């Protein structure tokens, strides 16, 4: 039986900030929560896919920016990426707590 749990959805978005605590934490923590509870919590499958798309997209952007450091423009891009990987999950968490779905900007839709 599925249930509504906006607090769990919020936690899933905030788990993306785990990459500041341990490597790949921002990808693994929400992935594990999503896979363990997607059948139990209404909307978690959609939120989980959006979070994974965001994480994959921004990992690609970070790799490209790291390569662009050679041209001296990658450092600015990496700074912007780092800032957005903090801001967007917080906005997503607030929206989820309010029962809204947050579509992350600049995200490539790998999982549909």
Mean pLDDT: 93
Distance between the termini: 23 Å
Overall spatial form: elongated
Describe the biggest sheet? none
The total beta strand count reads: 0
What structural class do the secondary elements suggest? Answer: mainly alpha
Computed Rg: 15 Å
- The H-and-E topology, N to C, reads as HHHH
Number of distinct helices = 4
Helix content, binned percent: 55-70%
Proportion of beta-strand residues: under 5%
Low-pLDDT windows of residues: none
Describe the structure.
The protein is mainly alpha-helical. Helix content is 62%, strand content 0%. The protein has 4 helices and no strands. It has helices at residues 6-14, 25-37, 44-67, 74-97. Helix 1 (6-14) packs antiparallel against helix 2, helix 2 packs antiparallel against helix 3 and helix 3 (44-67) runs antiparallel to helix 4 (74-97). The longest helix is centred in the middle third of the chain and has 24 residues, at 44-67. It is elongated and about 55 Å long.
Characteristic terms for this protein:
112 residues, mainly alpha, 4 helices, elongated
In short:
With 112 residues, this protein is mostly helical. The protein is built from 4 helices and no strands. Helices cover 62% and strands 0% of the residues.
Give a topology summary.
Elements lengths: L5 H9 L10 H13 L6 H24 L6 H24 L15
Helix pairs in contact: 1-2, 1-4, 2-3, 3-4
């Amino acid at each position: 039986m599925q249930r509504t749990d906006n607090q769990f959805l919020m936690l899933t978005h905030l788990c993306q900030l785990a990459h500041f605590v341990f490597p790949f934490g921002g990808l693994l923590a929400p992935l594990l929560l999503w896979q363990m509870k997607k059948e139990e919590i209404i909307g978690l499958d959609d939120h989980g896919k959006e979070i994974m798309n965001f994480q994959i997209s921004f990992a690609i952007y970070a790799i490209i920016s790291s390569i662009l450091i050679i041209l001296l423009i990658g450092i600015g891009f990496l700074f912007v990426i780092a800032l957005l990987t903090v801001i967007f999950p917080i906005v997503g968490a607030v929206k989820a707590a309010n029962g809204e779905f947050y579509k992350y900007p600049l995200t490539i839709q790998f999982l549909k």
